[in-house]
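Listing S7. Sequence submitted for prediction.
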Amino acid sequence: MRIVFLNPSAHLGGAEACLLDILDGIRTARPDWSLHLVTGEDGPLLPRVRQLGISEEVLPFPSAIAQIGDSAHTPGAAGNATLLKLAGKLSRSALPVVRYRRALRQLLSSLRPDLIHTNGFKMHLLGLWSRPGAVPVVWHVHDYVSSRPLMARLFRPNVSGCAAVIANSQSVAADIRKLCGPQIASALTLRTIYNAVDLERFHPNGPAANLDALCGFPPAPAGAIHVGLVATMAWWKGHRLFIEAVSRLPRHLPIRAFVIGGPVYRTQDSQLSLAELRTHAASLAASDRIGFPGFLEDSASALRALDVVVHASTQPEPFGRVIMEAMACGRPVLTSGIGGSAEILDMGPGAIKFQCGNADDLAAGIASLAEDSNLRRALGAAGRKTAESNFQRDLLARYLVPLYGSIAASSVPATEPAAVNVSVS
């Protein structure tokens, strides 16, 4: 079987980490299958794919497409302004979309896939619109659709063209069903397949990043507790809340806090900047105990450098990958536990929930774990067992291989095209 994966980004966000797990799992389970990745930009994802022995190439997004951001929006005047800005971007992208669809169709025709697996809302639509013949398309949805103004309008009339839709949590699947309505949802092949983790890479034993040195701090004193939020810079990941909670911690606690992550999106409306967060920390007189090491490609070493991992999303989390990765590294987690992340908590111990959006409650949780090393060790050990029981990489292939096989077996084969040259003007 020939499968082409389409992903808009080549940065290493959560969806890309999941994609790497899928590629590795399927390559191991079915070495006779041909896998190929197409991305809309160059970036650090591609060398990782090559290391797996999987072919890849870039079909660059024109800037008008790359800059369309359909992030979860806020209500009120700010939300209306975002919608107006999005409408302007859409009007400027109409012709580039037509050209990109033509180029993508040519590329897909030359690759002759039996199935197309898409990641990301842009590639969901472009992949469906550009597929050659009747090649089946599988949408892998990693985010809530209903909170995104553009995709919410386009999802329902297009989803019926998919052979299947994969959701990364029951919470995301429920959002899809609600958006589609009972008639469409009943006819939809919708599967919930949880993300996985590389349990060898994310392991309690291994190198740990020197966060103090990266942030220009002096060596930490004996007994210092390192607490960190590891997340993309999406505005709803709780960076500001975490900074506020740290600023409220008693000064006698030997705590150093870290905001680990950097901008990964080309759509600036979707994310905060490190400069904004540093300014926020300074305004709360917390700059001396909060470091900003930026994006660290080896996220496992970053997690191992922490004594407590904070997951502070202020909006429902589609899944909550960092919770799973921290558990695998044997680190206790404090989480707001809403959306798909609540499903991780139901799978086993390893994390403590705090009241979503409440900086005082988060600060109390950090202080409690900082003062109790036995509790930290117990939660960390329990979290590792939870990860081993529920998030093994081979589970992805166990669920996906039969799904792909049944879809390909029931599809109408596409006419085999001649090879073509591909370009985007």
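Caption to Listing S7: primary sequence and predicted structure tokens for the chain studied. The first helix runs from residue 14 to 29. The chain has two domains: 2-196+393-410, 211-390.
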